[in-house]
Fold this protein.
Amino acid sequence: MQTTTIAHAKLRLSESNVRKANGTAGLEALAASIAEHGLLQPLIVSPSSGKKTLFDVHAGGRRWRAIGLLIERGVLPKDYAIDVRLCENEDAASREISLAENLIREAMTPADEARAYKDIIAGGTDAEAVARRFGVTVRHVQGRLRLADLGEPIFAALAEGEITLDVAMAYGSTGDRERQLAAWERLSTSWQGDNPQAIRRAIAEEALSADHPIARFVGEVEYLACGGRIERDLFADEGEGQWLDGDLAMDLATKKLAFEAEVAELGSKLAWVKPTLATHVTYDDTKELHAYWPRRAEPSAEAVARMDEISDRMTEIAEIIDGPEDGDDVEALEAEYNALDAEHDRLADTELLIPEDDKPAVGTFLVLGKDGQPRLLETYYTTAKPSRRSSSDGEMVGSPDAEGDEPAPTASLPRSLEEQMAKDRRDVLALHIAHDPALALDLAIFALARDHAGHFGYGDTGCTIRIADRNEPSGLSGIPASSAVTDLEGLRAALPNDWASEEDSFASFLAFRALADDVKAGWLAYAVSQSLKASLTSGTHALAFQTRLGAEIGIEMAQHWRPGAENFFDRIKKAQILGILGQFDAEIALRYATAKKAELATAAARLCAGDTIIEPEIKAKALAWVPAVMRFDGFPSLLEGTEGVDAAAPDEADDRLQDDEEAAHEAANQNDAGVPTAEAA
C-alpha cells in the first residue's frame, strides 16, 4: 500500500464498500470542514477492474462526495487532487479495510465537542464563525457551549457517559451553576436522576416559567419595573423564559388578586370571595368550610325548549361522528357539538337563589385560570354548618341529592359506545369459556338438552349454541382490537384445522373424530365461546345470566379491559370524565376541570392504564375502575356514585353523617366545571 494523489474525477465509489446507504445527512458539515481544514485523512483506493484509468474508493466515500460538492460550487478546482492510499488487493483487502474503517471509527462525544468549541472560541472567534467552519447551526454551537459551562460533577458525568445528553441539557437549562449543583445533589442518586423533566422542574422550583398563570397575571412589564429578573433560553421570544425572582412575583400577584377579589365580592353580592394563587382550591383551603349547593332559578320555557333541541342535535352529531360516511365534515361537526355544549351550559346557568338566612355565610374562591385571568369558582361554600331542615321538595337544604347526581351510564352514553362495551364484556366472558372446556361442555349440553327437557329455550342465557345469528351490534369503528379479541384469535390459530379442509362433510367429521380428546375439547370451548351475545349488566343489552356466569367463573374485568381514550373516554362527556377522576382523587379532577376534551380523555386513559406516576392508593383505584355495566361481580362502579348503597343502621348514623359531609365536601371540589386545569397528575 502506497500513498499518492489522484484527481477527483478519476475516483469512483467501490461496489464492495460495506456502506451502502449514502445519505446526505452531515455532508454539508463535512464539506465545510474540508474547505476550512483540508482533507485530514487520505482515502483508501484500488485500481478499478473495469477501467484501468479509474480507481475505486473503498474507504472515504463521504469525503470524496464532499470534495465533489466543493468542486461543483467552485470552492475547489475541477482537477483537484486527493490524497489516497493505494491498495493493490482490490477484493479481500479492500472489503476488510472498508469494514474496519466504518466500524472502528468513533464519533466525538458531546462533551469532547463542547470542550473543542469552547477552546476555539477562547482563541478569539465567535459562535457564528465556528458554525460556518464546521457546517453546523449556530444554535448547535451555542447549545454545546452551554454544556461546557455545566458544573464540574455534571460535565464529568456527561464525559464519562454516566448521564445522557438529554439529562445534561436539562441541567444546562439554566446558566446558574448553584442551581445546577443544587438539583444535581438532590437528584443524581435518586430514581429521577435520568428524568430530564424532573430535573428541569427541580431547577425551576425557585423560579417561575414566563407562561405560568402567576406570571401571566402579573405581567412582564410590571415584574421588570419592580426589579424582577428574567433568564431566557437561546432564541427565546418575548414572553418566554424563567422569572428568577419567584418571591417577588408571588408578592405582586397576591396583592393584585386580593384587589380583584374585593371587586368580585361586590359584583357577586356574596358574603366573601377568598383569593387563592392557584388554579384550583385544595383540601386545606376548604377543610374548615362546608359545601353549599344553592338553588337556581328555573329556565324559561323558551330556554327549556332550546335545551331539548340542543340535546337532540348533540346526540345526532355524536352518532354521525362515531360512524362517519363519505362527505361528512367531522371537524365541522365537532365544532358544532362544542358550540352547542357551551350554549346548553349558558342556558342552564340561571340566577342563584340563596335564602336570606344563608347569604351572610356563603362565598367562593377567586383562582387563576391557566391563561392568568382571575375567575370565580362555580362551587360555593358556607362558613356555617349546613342546615338539616328539609326544603319543600323533601331535599336537605345545602346538601347534595341523597342518591348522587351522576346519571346511570346507559342513560347518557352514545349508543355505539354502549354496543362496543357490551361486545368487549362478552369477549372477556368468551375468553374464559374458551379456556375452560369442562364449563363449555356443561353450557353446551345444557343449552341443547333444555329444549328436550321441557325447559324450552327462553333465550335468557345469551348462549346461541345452535350457532344462530348473534345479531352482533355495530359498536365503535376504527378502534384497536381488545386484548380479549386478540387472545381469542390466538386460541383459534393454535387449534389444528386440517380436518375442516375435507370437502366431504362426513369425511371431515371422521377426521375430526380422530383428533385427540384435548384438541376436540379445545374446539368445543372455542365454538361455545363464539355463541355468546354481547351483553351488559343493565340497559338494552342486559343479560343477567351472563353476569352471573361471569361471577361464577370469577372474572376480574379490570384485568382484561381498560378504558382508553379511543374505546371509552373520547365517547363520553367531559363532565362524566371529571366525575370518574374525582372518585379516584378530587385534586386530579380539579386540575383538569378546564382542560380540553382531548387532553382530559388522554390523561384519564393514562391514569386508568397505570401509566402515570401517582400515589399508590390513587393508582390502585384507577387500575381497578371499570364501568358498572361491564362488571361481573354485581357491585356498583364508581361512576354511579351512591346508587345501590343500603341505608345506614341506627347505630351507624353518626358515622354515616360524618362520611356524608366529607363526601359532599369532596364532591363540591370535583364537580366544579369552572376550575382551570394545572399540570397533569
Observations:
- Residues 246-268 form the longest helix (23 residues).
- The two ends are 65 Å apart (CA to CA).
